[in-house]
DNA sequence: AGCACGCCGACT
DNA sequence: GTCGGCGTGCTC
């Protein structure tokens, strides 16, 4: 008797455990751990992951047999199965959610229900119900309002319900035509064809010219012949037709010119050599590659990977939201060609699935991708690289709330290989670990071409205001912009819209339009002319007069990119502006198009939000302007200073990377703030020291770890009292060393009419905390569902909202 | 999560 | 009497 242990696709606490299933005789030896299977679960059939195979079970009296395997080979190997279990404990998530997070979305199951007719005797009523067929889908039955009738028939034994477990994935198939005749035969046929068969003749002539064994349907139809002519030739035995699976290639129409390794500078040489050693001796080590922008980190990545590939191993490269850095993908594709699989959010579900399968089938040796690419199913991993290590997008905000850096380190330990964390502005956590020698620090302090860092000037916008300049461009930025336009050099204008995006305020009474369901002000959307809530989606018309005092002195505060664009055209009517934000880059590929447009010199100014801060490298940019540096500085987040510093430094790094030297203008209302000051000087080390003092005083990371618990409910009192109870419980079970803040209202105290309270735990070493938090979930579970409470626990949170 | 089972109110 | 409301509890 063989029994499979299965984690079922039901993400709840009660079912977050292994269920035992009998393996039918015919699949013994075929069902393996890591495969997806369809299993009966209660009255339904659902998907599950096999985690093990054993010979007996404590449930032997009520064992059911599994229905069928959904994979031919396991989709999760032993390492990934173990990683999933660890991840579930570490982030307090369900095992099933962790397994699903490791696979492309296409592999998530899709469930469908059908009614099957059992009684096939002539019966007008049944004939009518089933519309003369043997089965009817649940959806159809629902539409036709015959669910009760069908349920009755099930009771009579005339029908039954079947559950289908389907995969979202569709393999893409194309028709291929194999040549079945030799030239002489084709020639004979060609001559015997009637004169009006011009299309068939075209194809045969094409075949005689090409002399290939196989032709795709596309190739043949390019001769101008219709499908019917091809079919005619298949009938005549010229071709045999077959279907083959093809990968959807997102880079189909892109050409990559092969690059060779560049000679390394002394500094690069020094940095890469310990990495190469670690690869050689196959041991685990985390390196923090701290290198200023333009110091050549990527070449170090490339050459380290080359070494890994030479050893027959594989590499993972994580980049933040990769669709935003097409230049990065190009560099990897150019060096390693088809060995590279790319996984990022810009791909369709099918494309992602295909790229993933290239990895699984060992057709790709290098994966370049966003956060989830850290789970690439390699079995002989030689290196994991995390570029722009400080980026917060490496933390997943939905369940499972994991950080790619932690997963990378876990996997590297398993594979005995190095992790490289690269950044010009490392996260405080990583830099502190490097200082404590937990990570091994490698430094690149000089730019490759020995170009000096751009000159940065910080402009105090309060002074501009005092001097009567009420425009969003300071006099300095204005004159420099004019200068660049004159010289035909390019400018990047960076607008940080986060923080306070455009909201509406009455200048007479100070009324600010709020969302009726959430405690947050509504955002003004010019293109739809609506006031919108970014949290619950509520929207309403834009008022002409103040709803409170009927004044018509209504102003829109905060500056959107559209508004800046309009202003720009007012001041510089001839400037050619490319605007990049969520509105202009929504469509697939729009991003690349806009960048190409700018790169080819068809525009003078690139105006955008966060997304233009990263990785762009254009030679002709000599001016970078930051319109308001401090919009995110006042967010209720202990990382606000760090984020501001990183952003300003990254943006500044976009200027003067090549022959032309660059200038940066940072406009701010708080020029004295240390993160603005040190970013202006590009002085990471002094920023680090200052910020470490702030973190120490506030007992924040990297001095303390954090766990954040958020409780929400429609009733304020209920929310507060529950949070209080939970806080007390936790307090009683951990040491006095830990600091507990709360219960306090969340920074956004109400979303979608639900009040939100939280409790923040700061601690250094609390081995009992995670088990305690798990107990909280377990203990309150039933009560929570019953009373409509929701609880979310975030270990090491990055979003404090 | 779904779904069945079960125990109480308004109808043919 | 029964249909159907949704509270409760289970799923190998």
TrEMBL record:
GO terms for cellular component: primosome complex. It catalyses: ATP + H2O = ADP + phosphate + H(+); Couples ATP hydrolysis with the unwinding of duplex DNA by translocating in the 3'-5' direction. Zn(2+) 1 binds at residues 506, 509, 546, 549. Zn(2+) 2 binds at residues 515, 518, 533, 536. Keywords: ATP-binding, DNA replication, DNA-binding, Helicase, Hydrolase, Isomerase, Metal-binding, Nucleotide-binding, Primosome, Zinc. Residues 278-444 form the Helicase ATP-binding domain. It comes from the Bacteria. Binds 2 zinc ions per subunit. SUPFAM superfamilies: P-loop containing nucleoside triphosphate hydrolases (SSF52540). Residues 541-709 form the Helicase C-terminal domain. Its EC number is 5.6.2.4. The keyword Nucleotide-binding applies. Its cofactor is Zn(2+). GO terms for molecular function: 3'-5' DNA helicase activity; ATP binding; DNA binding; hydrolase activity; zinc ion binding. One of its GO terms (biological process) is DNA replication, synthesis of primer. Belongs to the helicase family. PriA subfamily. Initiates the restart of stalled replication forks, which reloads the replicative helicase on sites other than the origin of replication. Recognizes and binds to abandoned replication forks and remodels them to uncover a helicase loading site. Promotes assembly of the primosome at these replication forks. Component of the replication restart primosome. This is Replication restart protein PriA. It comes from Lederbergia citri. The lineage of its organism: Bacteria, Bacillati, Bacillota, Bacilli, Bacillales. The gene is priA.
């Amino acid at each position: 008797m063989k029994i499979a242990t299965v984690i079922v696709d039901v993400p709840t606490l009660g079912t977050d455990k292994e269920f035992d299933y009998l393996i039918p005789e015919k699949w013994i030896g075929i069902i393996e751990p890591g495969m997806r299977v369809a299993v009966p679960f209660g009255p339904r059939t659902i998907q599950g992951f096999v985690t093990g195979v054993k010979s007996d079970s404590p449930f032997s009296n009520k064992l059911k047999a599994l229905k069928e395997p959904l994979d031919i080979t396991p989709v999760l190997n032993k390492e990934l199965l173990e990683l999933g279990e660890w991840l579930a404990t570490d982030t307090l998530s369900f095992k099933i959610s962790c397994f699903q997070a490791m696979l492309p979305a296409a592999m998530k199951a899709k469930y469908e229900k059908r009614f099957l007719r059992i009684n096939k005797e002539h019966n007008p009523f049944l004939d009518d119900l089933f519309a003369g067929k043997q089965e009817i889908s649940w959806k159809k039955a629902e539409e036709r309002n015959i669910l009760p009738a069908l349920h009755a028939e099930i009771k009579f034994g005339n029908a039954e319900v079947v559950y289908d477990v389907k995969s979202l994935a569709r393999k893409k198939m194309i028709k291929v035509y194999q040549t079945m005749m030799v030239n002489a035969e084709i020639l004979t046929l060609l001559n015997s064809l009637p004169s009006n068969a011009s299309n068939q003749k075209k194809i045969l002539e094409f075949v005689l010219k090409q002399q290939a064994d196989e032709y795709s349907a596309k190739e043949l139809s390019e001769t101008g012949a219709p499908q019917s002519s091809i079919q005619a030739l298949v009938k005549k035995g010229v071709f045999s037709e077959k279907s083959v699976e093809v990968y959807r290639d997102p880079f189909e129409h892109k050409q990559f010119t092969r690059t060779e390794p560049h000679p390394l500078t002394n500094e690069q040489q020094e940095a890469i050599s310990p990495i190469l050693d670690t690869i050689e001796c196959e041991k685990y080590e985390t390196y923090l590659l701290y290198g200023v922008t333009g110091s050549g980190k990527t070449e170090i990545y490339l050459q380290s990977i080359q070494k890994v590939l030479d050893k027959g191993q594989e590499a993972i490269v994580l980049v933040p939201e990769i669709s935003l850095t097409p230049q990065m993908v190009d560099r990897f594709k150019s060096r390693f060609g088809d060995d590279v699989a790319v996984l990022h959010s810009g791909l369709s579900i099918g494309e992602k699935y295909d790229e993933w399968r290239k990895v699984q089938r060992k057709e790709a040796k290098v994966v370049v991708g966003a956060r989830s690419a850290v789970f690439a199913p390699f079995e002989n991993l030689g290196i994991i690289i995390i570029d722009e290590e400080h980026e917060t997008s490496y933390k997943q905000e939905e369940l499972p709330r994991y950080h790619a850096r932690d997963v990378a380190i876990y996997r590297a330990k398993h594979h005995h290989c190095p992790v490289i964390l690269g950044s010009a502005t490392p996260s405080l956590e990583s830099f502190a670990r490097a200082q404590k020698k937990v990570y091994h620090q490698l430094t690149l302090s000089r730019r490759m071409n020995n170009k000096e860092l751009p000159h940065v000037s910080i402009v105090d916008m309060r002074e501009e205001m005092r001097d009567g300049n009420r425009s969003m461009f300071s006099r300095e930025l204005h004159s420099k912009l004019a200068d660049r336009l004159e010289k035909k050099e390019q400018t990047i204008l960076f607008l940080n819209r986060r923080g306070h995006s455009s909201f509406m305020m009455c200048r007479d009474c100070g009324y600010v339009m709020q969302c009726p369901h959430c405690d947050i002000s509504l955002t003004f959307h010019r293109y739809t002319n609506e006031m919108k809530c970014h949290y619950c989606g509520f929207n309403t018309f834009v008022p002409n007069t103040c709803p409170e005092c009927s004044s018509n002195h209504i102003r829109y505060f905060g500056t959107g990119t559209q508004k800046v664009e309009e202003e720009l055209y007012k001041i510089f009517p001839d400037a050619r502006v490319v605007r990049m934000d969520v509105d202009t880059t929504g469509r697939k590929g729009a991003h690349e198009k806009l960048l190409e447009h700018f790169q080819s010199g068809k525009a003078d100014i690139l105006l955008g939000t966060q997304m233009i801060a990263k990785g762009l490298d254009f030679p002709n940019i000599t001016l970078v302007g930051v319109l308001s540096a401090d919009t995110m500085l006042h967010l209720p987040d202990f990382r606000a200073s760090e984020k501001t510093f990183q952003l300003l430094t990254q943006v500044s790094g976009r200027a003067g990377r090549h022959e032309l030297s660059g200038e940066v203008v940072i406009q701010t209302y708080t020029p004295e703030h240390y993160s603005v000051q040190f970013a202006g000087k590009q002085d990471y080390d002094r920023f680090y020291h200052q910020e470490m003092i702030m973190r120490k005083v506030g007992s924040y990371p990297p001095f303390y770890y954090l766990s954040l618990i958020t409780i929400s409910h429609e009733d304020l009192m209920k929310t507060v009292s529950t949070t209080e109870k939970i806080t007390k419980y936790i307090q009683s079970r951990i040491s006095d060393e830990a600091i507990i803040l709360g219960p306090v209202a969340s920074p956004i105290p109400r979303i979608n009419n639900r009040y939100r309270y939280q409790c923040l735990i700061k601690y250094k070493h609390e081995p009992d905390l995670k088990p305690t938090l798990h107990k909280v979930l377990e203990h309150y579970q039933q009560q929570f569902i019953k009373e409509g409470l929701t609880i979310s626990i975030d270990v090491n949170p990055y979003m404090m909202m």
